[in-house]
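Lay summary

Proteins are chains of building blocks that fold into shapes. Our project writes down both the chain and a compact code for its shape. Here are two examples, one after the other.
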Amino acid sequence: MRNFNAVITGVGGFVPEKIVTNEDICKLVDTTDEWIISRTGIKERRCLEGSTTGSSYMGIKAVEELLKKTGVNPEEIEAVICSTTTPDYFFPATATIIAHQCGLVNAFAFDLSAACSGFIFALSNASSLIESGKYKKIIVVASEKMTSVTDYQDRATCPLFGDGSAAVLLESTTEDYGVMDSLLHTDGTGFANLQLRAGGSANPATYGTIDRREHFVYQEGQAVFKAAVTRLVESCEEMKTRNNLKTEDITWVVPHQANMRIIDAIARHMHIPHEQIMVNIHKYGNTSSATIPICLWEWEDKLRKGDVLILSAFGAGFTWGGIYLKWGYDPK
């Protein structure tokens, strides 16, 4: 029996103004609007402009909105965990930039990298810190400038990705709400199927890596698709079984927004009506670890205290996981 639960008490978000449509993509590579929609469900995505503007910019915007909406004193925040695959720099951590710019002077801050599963991993870790009783207020922010690692000469991957950020405030509660359960998994055999092949310590940047375009997302689509469907469905079913949840107990499913066909598979296997699944991939594309919190941000006004949410994500590594969440507040 826990003494404390970690409950979400607010959500903030930010997406760039610039919209990149499928028609824009068609001008760059040999593809069509019909081809993109039929295989991904994506119609448009957002792009953060500015060669020196990184993920921290969007994270700052999301956290600023979160603080304004919740009315929390920035000095009360004790930790900031930033999930990102596209940090501003190798170091310092993007979280430290966000914390500084948002006046979170009493918060320790660090980045967490688990690719598209990052928000699930970060939320689970932040929840554990609060459940320990040592911390009472933590911000988890996911911010991704995926267009910075997208190869706009690659027909297979360039329609997929977009930019965006969202943040949640986690607070300590003794009520029966918040993060009720989480499961996290990794299978390193998927390493070669989805990666950024150059720029790290194992393969530093050289003229050769740049010429071979190895600083962009590399994906073996069929292998990733098959693994994603299997693991996302498994994580949802495992979460139901572990917590004795029936389908009718679930108010919302919040899947990672990678591909509409994957989301359809989850709905089919779980027997969940599509109107109970949060979907915005058609507007934003795949924003990596930011997809799930952006969904929570967009659906915040529709959520009610006590709603049961199942969050599920899959990403490079391979990493995947799920969270059973009981929503903690009515629309404000």
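And here is the second example, written the same way.
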Amino acid sequence: MQIDAHQHFWRLDRGDYGWLTPEAGPIFRDFLPRDLEPLLARHFIGATILVQAAPTVAETEFLLSLAAATPFVAGVVGWVDLTAADAALQIARLAANSLLVGLRPMVQDTADDEWLLRPCLQPAIAAMVRHGLVFDALVLPRHLPRLLVFLDRYPELRVVLDHGAKPEIREARLDPWRADVAAVAARPATWCKLSGLVTEAGAAWTLDDLRPSVAHLLAVFGPERLLWGSDWPVVERAGGYDAWRAATAGLLASLPETERQAVLGGNAKRAYLGRRGRPSEMLNPAPPRR
């Protein structure tokens, strides 16, 4: 089964998407399961990982309710304030729902570049490990040195690096990102999403713009620890789902079929759905090829 390892839903009237304003253009509207389903069918994708887009527990509960009613959603990566005194209790409460497969603090939006190193995170991280949850690292290149310390501090925590840590593709500035992301990849409990790169490249991106960063991610993580994600609907600001899926085919063309299928689904199943999430037999299978 092919899996989209990174997609979002939102409903504007909920009111907790502070980053989502009219300036966001085509994505400043509601996006719900009925909007994504035709895209998944067109690309023979049978399941998704639904990822938070607002820093509230209320949004996580909203996503879990959507997931429960949406057969193609295999799991939810939600949000909890990991620095809160009651974080471990909140995590335990939410983790009682097996559709919760991970948590994602929005590190890229924090004013404190040292946030990952705060000692007060320890009880929350311990609770994540205890409940088998993945830590989605939404970071920028400047955060990678702190992420390295974080990874060494919590070696039992499974970590998925979102969007390849957002390399500066548009500026053609891939250093020191190259060395830092290679150091992150050297930690065996880390994975990386092949997602969000077209947004970093800008609306006029070409396949050649993407090749250097994708080649580096393949080299350091290997095809066994890369997970393809659409970053839909954010991807609609940079060409759309179809264009990114077509680009992926070109970028992975040199891989053997087994390795391509790992990136396009098998790795997401291993990273997120080993102990949690919707059982495979309950997922909607992808439509047959015609």
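What can we say about the second shape? The mean pLDDT is 95.
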